[in-house]
Structures are given as structure tokens and as C-alpha cells.
Amino acid sequence: MSINPDALEKHLTTRSYVEGYTPSQADVHVYKLTTAPTPSTYPHTARWYSHITSYCAEFDTLPGTSTAGQAFVQAAAASGTSPASAAEAEEEEEIDLFGEDDEVDAEAERIKAERVAAYNVKKAGKPKAAAKSVVTLEVKPWDDETDMQALEESVRSIEMEGLVWGASKLVAIGYGIKKLQITLVVEDELVSLDDLQEKLVEFEDYIQSSDIAAMQKL
């Protein structure tokens, strides 16, 4: 079924889209039945056609169904006019269909503003992922008689929001002394490594010092 170009032009004189305030499957349905209009003859249809063309890659993901588009095509074919109310049709007859350049520019700006607003809403709905780092921490005991199991339990007993302890191992450093090498993941905005190291040295019965051996952003 072909689209009635005059009906489409009249329909789009006071609307940005076939249905609603954002591109939808109704626009996709009508678009596929429409050939590129001549701007001098159908300025509003040309504006709409160009705008919907920019969404070609997103046709499958646009919201809604083609039902409204099908209804529009059928009504336009049957009556030769837009399925708008009689009062709307009378008002539309008084509008200069050729328009002025400044009207076209204003409409383009309005459409642009709508798209920016829709993008901002979509962007705001996506939570920003927290920045995280993987840290390798080395904890040194006082001597070879230090209880390394108790030392590790002390280290892991520290709880901070945004801190997750990972795997660990003992690494020999000489003279029978071993240090604890432990991995942790931290949320950068929530965990201060300086504060963490200060908490570690509070276990003065086991811990002599600690060092950041490696750090990598996730």
C-alpha cells in the first residue's frame, strides 16, 4: 500500500512524528512506504524523512509497534487526509505548507533539543561503574617467631566499605622470616590505602610494616 503524500504532509505540519513525541515503529512503518519527498513541495515531510533516516541503524530497537503507522496509512488512503480530528484539519488548512526558512530552523532546533533530552535521560539511567584497583600488599612480621597465621587473620579482620580481600601467600625474605603477600580489590573513592596501612600497624604484636608491591586499575 502506498502512502498519500498530501495526507502525510498535512499530518506532519503540526507534528514531529507519526505518533507520540519520539521516533517509534509507527514512523518506521510509514517511512518504508515513503520515497524521499521534494522539500519545496513537502517541506514538513522532507524534514521528518531526513530525521527518521538518521535512525536507520536503530530501526529494530525503536519503541512501540507498527500498528499506529498501519492505521495512519489506511486512514490516509481511505480519506486522502490525515486521521486528525476535523477541528485540527481546519486549523491545518490555514497553515502555510511551504513554510519559512526560520520555521524549518526552529523545528530542527526543537527536534535536536528533544533528542538531547532523550539522550540525557537514557544516560542518567545508567549507573556509573565505580573505579576500582587491584592491589598487592606485602606485610612484614617482626621476626621468624611471629605467628603468621595470626598475622594474616589480623589483616583480614580489617573491614572497610569498598574493600575485598583476596588470595594470599607467604614469601621467604631470609633468615627464616617470611612476609605475607596478599591481594585486595578496593573502590578508589571509598578506600584510602594510607588509612588501611595505618590500621595494619595497629596490630603491633605481629606487624612491623607494610608496603604496596603492585597496583593496577580495573
Note the main attributes of this structure.
218 residues, four-stranded antiparallel β-sheet, Alpha-Beta Plaits, 41% helix, single chain, 2 domains, alpha+beta, EF-1_beta_acid_region_euk, protein biosynthesis
Q: What is the number of E strands?
A: 4
Percent range for β-strand residues: 15-25%
Between the first and last Cα atoms, what is the distance in angstroms? 55 Å
Structural category is alpha+beta
CATH architecture group name of the largest domain: 2-Layer Sandwich
The CATH class name of the largest domain reads: Alpha Beta
Backbone CA Rg: 34 Å
Large-scale geometry: rod-shaped
A few lines on this structure:
Helix content is 41%, strand content 20%. The chain has eight helices and four strands; from the N terminus they run H-H-H-H-H-H-E-H-E-E-H-E.
Helices and strands in order:
Elements: H1 5-12, H2 25-32, H3 43-53, H4 67-79, H5 86-93, H6 101-124, E1 132-141, H7 148-156, E2 163-174, E3 177-187, H8 193-200, E4 207-217
Antiparallel strand pairs: 1-3, 1-4, 2-3
Helix pairs in contact: 1-3, 2-4
Task: Explain what the structure shows.
The protein is 41% helix and 20% strand. With 218 residues, it is an alpha+beta fold. It has two domains: 67 residues, no CATH class; 86 residues, Alpha-Beta Plaits, CATH 3.30.70.60. The protein has a four-stranded antiparallel β-sheet with strand order 2-3-1-4, with helices on one face. Helix 1 packs across helix 3 and helix 2 crosses helix 4. The chain is rod-shaped, with a radius of gyration of 34 Å. The two termini are 55 Å apart. Keywords: Elongation factor, Protein biosynthesis.
